[in-house]
Write a structure and sequence with these properties.
Layout: H1 2-11, E1 14-19, H2 22-25, H3 38-41, H4 44-47, H5 50-55, H6 57-72, H7 78-89, E2 92-97, H8 103-107, E3 112-114, E4 117-124, E5 130-132, E6 151-155, H9 164-175, E7 179-183, H10 194-201, E8 205-210, E9 222-225, H11 228-236
Parallel strand pairs: 1-2, 1-7, 2-3, 7-8, 8-9
Antiparallel strand pairs: 4-5, 4-6
The structure holds ligand BJW and zinc ion.
């Protein structure tokens, strides 16, 4: 199976890669779901929704300050590095990530979109202010330098729409791919997960890498069970 996946990837001209929290797990970033997932310890509805932020912005900022602290200490792993190599080899490559940790950029990927935003950016809840801010911790209630309103993390919470430009770019790329490589996602959060079904509908070969079977395994042509940091480098070399 690894050999078939390797050949399909190395011989295609158009490749899209969809990543989720599992690709950063070996770097030391907790995933969301599963035994060691963040959501087991924290109540999502208390933290990753606009309603939660309205109700208790201090608590939500405390959570994000903690996440920033964790992520600041970690480094890209061999899976992130393998995707940088792939971007160099494949003529038409797009990385579509659900992750907000910024590890793909840190590793060196250039042609990529972040579906759920980036934890190192903040945006104003009132005006158009949007800026990178890597300070840790941010004040418990950070304010906008332009209009003094409350700032929020530039991430997409449940019930919020994804940036339409970002989503459109992902959809168009998915509709025009030969191969879709799906790495470390439980494939349950929409609309990100639906991109896998869209690729299948359009005739792409779906290759999945995960430590366990997921919602997407049924439609995947090849599922490689194993850690991304161990499996992915074998597909590239
Ligand atoms: C390894 C590994 C290793 C471990 N190697 N693998 C019913 C049907 C359809 C949709 C909905 C519905 N009910 C509600 C909705 C909508 C909702 C949704 O999808 N909910 C589902 C949970 C049911 N979606 C939304 O609300 C989205 N917005 C939307 O729909 O808007 C509509 C709208 C339109 C117009 C106007 C207004 C609204 C927004 C979704 C935003 C998701 N945000 C989060 C938080 C981001 C910020 C933050 O980080 O704090 O994004 S939630 C969280 O889940 C995060 C992730 O990106 C996302 C996906 O998780 P992911 O990456 O798959 O991680 P895990 O933990 O689930 O899985 C890890 C995987 O790795 C596992 O499979 C492991 O096995 C594997 N693994 N170690 C390889 N070493
Ligand atoms: Zn402002």
């Amino acid at each position: 199976m690894i050999k078939k996946a390797r050949e399909a990837i190395l011989h295609c001209r158009r490749l899209r890669v969809l990543t989720g929290a599992g690709i950063s797990a070996e770097s030391g970033v907790p995933t969301f779901r599963g035994a060691n997932g963040l959501w087991g310890k924290y109540n999502v509805m208390e933290l990753a929704t606009p309603e939660a932020f309205q109700r208790n912005p201090e608590l939500v900022w405390k959570f994000y300050n903690w996440r920033r602290e964790v992520i600041a200490k970690v480094k890209p792993n061999p899976a992130h590095k393998a995707l940088v190599d792939l971007e160099k080899i494949i003529p038409d490559f797009l990385l579509i990530t659900q992750n907000v940790d910024g590890l793909h950029q840190q590793a060196g990927n250039k042609n990529m979109v972040e579906l759920h935003g980036n934890i190192w950016w903040v945006k104003c809840t009132t005006c158009e202010y949007l800026a990178q801010d890597r300070s840790i911790p941010l004040p418990s209630l950070p304010t906008c330098p332009k209009c003094s309103s409350l700032l929020r993390p530039n991430v997409v919470w449940f019930g919020e729409a994804l940036d339409p430009e970002v989503l459109d770019k992902a959809i168009e790329a998915i509709e025009n791919t030969e191969v879709l490589l799906v790495i470390g996602t439980s494939a349950v959060v929409q609309p990100a997960a639906s991109l896998i079904w869209l690729a299948k509908e359009k005739g792409a070969l779906i290759i999945e890498i995960n430590i366990e079977k997921t919602e997407a395994s049924e439609i995947a042509d090849i599922t490689l069970l194993g850690k991304a940091g161990e499996v992915l480098p074998q597909l590239v070399k």
